[in-house]
Amino acid sequence: MLITDRKEGLKRVFSRKSALSENAKKSVEDIISAVKRDGDVALFEYAAKFDGVNLNAGNILISKEEIEKAYESVSDELLGALRRAKKNIENYHKKQLLPGELSESTPGGKTGYMIRPVDRAGIYVPGGKASYPSSVLMAAVPASVAGVKEIIMCTPGASPLTLVAAAECGVRSIYRVGGAQAIAAMAYGTRSIPKADVICGPGNMYVTEAKRLVYGDAGIDMIAGPSEILVVADSSADPVFTAADLLSQAEHDEMAMAILVTSDENFARKVSDEVERQVALLPKAAIAGKSISDYGTIIIAENLEECMDISNEIAPEHLELCVSEPEKLLSSVRNAGAVFMGHWSPEPLGDYYAGTNHVLPNGGTAKYFSALGVNNFVKRISLIKYGKDALCAASDDIIALAEAEGLEAHANAVRVRMKGLKL
């Protein structure tokens, strides 16, 4: 890993952004236009071109028999782990439910809101370099908790456990289609795939660009890219633990980013050496090694305060506070997708089991996006109920403001209700 100072380290970190979308944008635009225009025909052509799969109207939907067969190939132990993780995710996301209310805000006037789920949610689950049943849980569970009646799923390649996870979460239909074409299909609908109101879930840069382009025709969760982790560590941290945590994200993708920020240069060198030792032992050593070589960065700061300043500037997807007293640093955290506190809360705990969502903003978008959650699948609808006296009390102000904007009809809608006044 490159050991450097703040200026050069941040330059290296931010250099990754320029490589994410520009080259893909034109091809994604073409894919979306084709799916919007030609529907299933385009889907089938792209499946053959990009995935080498012969799709048609008869096999694009994964059958009940395939799901039943998937259950047969998943061990009881693994199914139990999946169900326990699902329960934790449900419990966490139930905390996000909003009851809605209508209460008096002024004498005789009530305002409030009510919460309603979207009708249909579409979730995307990657299936290229790895199988991600955990991503099914992270997208489908909050949708279910929100009260969404119909959940559909697109994935380019579903392992048995991915199919089982979808069935456990009540996903109604699973389509074997991936990439930008899957996002377009869920955004606009085809003969085989119905249009979804909201599209959520992680994906590669083509999927991300597609979500960006269809936003407005469908809701999306966030604009995200390759995974990243930033570890803030002091002298109490273990170099072996820290190296393992950094590699937990580097193995995702060649463009994943692993960053250590510390004020202890001796510790930094131990971590760098340990990363080199551990990466060679990984089954995905080629992917993780490329990520570390291109983007792995150790930034040496003056103190923990500067460490946190650097972290907030980067706004990491995963932030680990591997320090002796992590709670004391929480007040300094302004930008992060998820925060893992202490030496015994590694990033995979959030990926699989703790219950928090692992679909997180990255690439700096944690400055304004939040983790996927119940709010992505519901609408907050405003409620207003004023009585006659309450409207009369507010009428002069409303009329003045409307007339100041040159909107006489707005003013008249209030004026005609005032006792004894007519147009």
Model description:
This protein has 16 helices and 14 strands. With 423 residues, it is of the alpha/beta class. A six-stranded parallel β-sheet has the order 1-11-10-9-12-13, sandwiched between helices. It has a five-stranded parallel β-sheet with strand order 6-5-4-7-8, with helices on both faces. A hairpin with a 2-residue loop joins strand 2 (101-106) and strand 3. The radius of gyration is 25 Å and the shape is globular.
> Count the strands?
14
N-to-C order of helices and strands? EHHHHHEEEHEHEHEHEEHEHHEHEEHEHH
Mean of residue pLDDT values: 94
Number of helices: 16
- Alpha-beta content class: alpha/beta
Q: Major sheet: size, sense and barrel closure? A: 6 strands, parallel
Overall spatial form: globular
Radius of gyration: 25 Å
Strand content: 15-25%
Order the strands across the largest sheet as they lie in space.
1-11-10-9-12-13
Question: What proportion of the residues is helical, as a percent range?
Answer: 40-55%
Low-confidence stretches: none
In whole angstroms, the N-to-C terminal distance is 76 Å
Compile the SSE list and pairings.
Layout: E1 2-4, H1 6-15, H2 22-38, H3 40-51, H4 64-73, H5 76-94, E2 101-106, E3 109-117, E4 120-124, H6 133-146, E5 150-154, H7 160-168, E6 173-175, H8 179-188, E7 198-200, H9 205-214, E8 219-220, E9 228-233, H10 239-250, E10 257-262, H11 265-279, H12 285-295, E11 297-300, H13 304-314, E12 318-322, E13 338-341, H14 347-352, E14 378-386, H15 388-404, H16 408-415
Parallel strand pairs: 1-11, 4-5, 4-7, 5-6, 7-8, 9-10, 9-12, 10-11, 12-13
Antiparallel strand pairs: 2-3, 3-14
